[in-house]
Amino acid sequence: MIGRLVRTDFKVGTRGYIYPIYLLIALAYGLVVMAFPEQYHPIIVPIFVLIEPGLVGFMFVGTGIFAEKKDGTIGALAVTPLEWRSYILAKTLLMVLVSLPAAALIMGIGTRSLNGLSYVLAGTFLVSIVYTLLGIAVSSKYHDLDDYFVPLLGVMVLSLLPFAHYHGYLTNEIWKVLYAVPSYPALYFFKAPFEEISMNTLMWSGFALIIWSGIAYHLARIRFYKYAVEGLR
Questions:
Q1: Which residue, 91, 19, 96, 26, is CA-closest to 62?
Q2: Residue predicted with more confidence, 67 or 24
Q3: Contact, 93 vs 86, CB < 8 A?
Q4: Among 41, 37, 42, 88, which Cα is nearest to 226's?
Q5: Which residues have C-beta within 8 Å of that of residue 141, sequence separation ≥ 6?
Q6: Each residue of 82-116: pLDDT tens digit?
Q7: What pLDDT digit, counting tens, does each position of 197-210 carry?
Q8: According to a count of CB atoms within 10 Å of the terminal CB, is the N or C end of the chain lower?
Q9: 166 Cβ partners below 8 Å, 6+ apart?
């Protein structure tokens, strides 16, 4: 069931140029990174890799849900034997499968090297799951991009703050709360190709993202059924 949903969604998204545009954005990010001197890659690459599978994925899954609300696809879940949890998992799996080549494009084209790509792909896999599920959870309540813009902007700003803390720009003790933001553990994976990150740190970062995946799935499951399937406001 999930496999069929993934294939169908991929065909629809490809015909609507959603996934080709997604990969073109990754290509553009890679070219931007390539324009920077090599010493800036440890800063620029992690930002773009997070933005692509995380924040862009968060936006794309939301706009996809809006479109499917309008054409009645999601409403049909309430009256058909299709398991709506399968819909959530299929959306997540598809975004992960698209995010991995996107991250590879940014890394490979931007740095002209694939050293450390395994760390980037591992972080991309986990962070894509988290942000896709959060995108489903948040967007389920809204009906168009105008309403979605404020929470989208809020998630984007909050997710980028860990970069400022990591590089020493937010030094007050209160900013340690940013360790709880899912982009922070992902940052260690994206930094690993450029600086030495201990395996212990990567292990705990992966564990944190797995916990976040469980939280995000729980939120997506509840809010998608309440607002999208049942149509409650």
A1: 91
A2: 24
A3: no
A4: 88
A5: 223, 227, 233
A6: 667 788 888 899 889 989 999 999 999 999 988 99
A7: 999 999 999 999 99
A8: C
A9: 184, 187, 191
Backbone angles phi, psi at 6, to 5 degrees: -60, -45
* 3-state per-residue secondary structure call for the chain: CHHHHHHHHHHHHHHCCHHHHHHHHHHHHHHHHHHCCHHHHHHHHHHHHHHHHHHHHHHHHHHHHHHHHHCCCCHHHHCCCCCHHHHHHHHHHHHHHHHHHHHHHHHHHHHCCCCCHHHHHHHHHHHHHHHHHHHHHHHCCCCCHHHHHHHHHHHHHHHHHHHHHHCCCCCCHHHHHHHHCCHHHHHHHHHCCCCCCCHHHHHHHHHHHHHHHHHHHHHHHHHHHHHHHCCCC
Predicted TM-score (pTM) of the model is: 0.90
Tokens coding 85: 């949890």
Phi-psi region of 178 (alpha: psi -120 to 50; beta: other; left: phi over 0): alpha
Q: What is the pLDDT of residue 233?
A: 46
Q: Tell me how far apart the alpha carbons of residues 213 and 232 are, in angstroms, rounded to a whole number.
A: 25
Nearest to 113 by CA among 15, 41, 181: 41
Provide the angle, in degrees to the nearest 10, between the axes of the packed helices 117-139 and 145-166.
140
Whole-number percent of the chain with pLDDT over 90: 45
